[in-house]
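Lay summary. Proteins are chains of building blocks that fold into shapes, and those shapes determine what they do. In this project we predict the shape from the chain. Here is one chain we studied, written as its sequence of building blocks.
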Amino acid sequence: MKLSSPPESRPSRTQPELPSPTGSRRLILLSFAVIYLVWGSTYLAIRVSVETIPPFLMSAARFVVAGGLMLLFLRLRGAPWPSRRQWRNGAIAGTLLLLGGNALVGLAEKTVASNIAALLIAMTPAWFALLNWLRPAGAAPTRRVLMGITVGFCGVAWLVWPRTGPSASTGSAPELALVSPLGLLLLVSASVLWAAGSLYVKHVERPASPFVGAAVQMLAGGAVVSVVACALGETTGFRINQISHRSWAAWLYLITFGSWLGYSAYNYLLAHVSSAAVSTYAFVNPVIAVGLGWWLANEAFAPRMIAAAVIIVAGVVIITWPARVPNRT
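And here is the predicted shape, written in a compact code that computers can read:
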């Protein structure tokens, strides 16, 4: 038994049985490819979009547009309208996932490089395991999972701990921390809230179609982020003509690939495979993000970051590696 993942919900009227093996296998593999590759690129897209768009306003517009158009399309295709309870659950999940797990990343990337953000978010599987342990009837993490969590957090500590000695490049000036305390707090909070939202989605009533569920979460969550953006004054004095072409392109990329493809694929996987399996994206995304940040945005690729990345990814692999089931003779 995999103690690192939460027990799967029993099928109900709103949670259908798994599709046929052939269809599900193809969609599952395609969905994994999407969240592995596409979501690795969204860290850079978020950083570019918030260059000229306030972070909460950017996320709000992204998810309201993506969720609204997606729900409209699905309704025209005959999908049933979600129930009041499904809207409520979608609003809670959308708040945790999109306000907490996504908008906070955008705010952090105002000062934190996209590759650093991806490495810190890579520890999300650790929060999956710990929060699953704390929830009612949750499973305690195994020794292997605890070891992986320890290894991963050692990598995070190595990444964020400021150096006080002389810099190797100058021999005299102290080396600056790669991430500020505020940036670290925002990214850790985003990881925790994303894991909490994902676990919540798996254990509450949701639409039979995971794509309708994703649309509801994006639309409701985007509405909540809109309220926060207004409360923070991000709309005051903001003008659309201030948005650069780069930020427009990144925002459209986030809607098309990050939301319609990536977020829908993520919800499909949450409905059909274990949380431990879904969370394996966390050790692929940083590789993509670090490579793209170095290639397209000239972000740092220092030996210290490489060493921290190896340690963090190793910890995530240990956490998410399937447990062996002994053969019975």
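What the prediction tells us: The first helix runs from residue 21 to 49.
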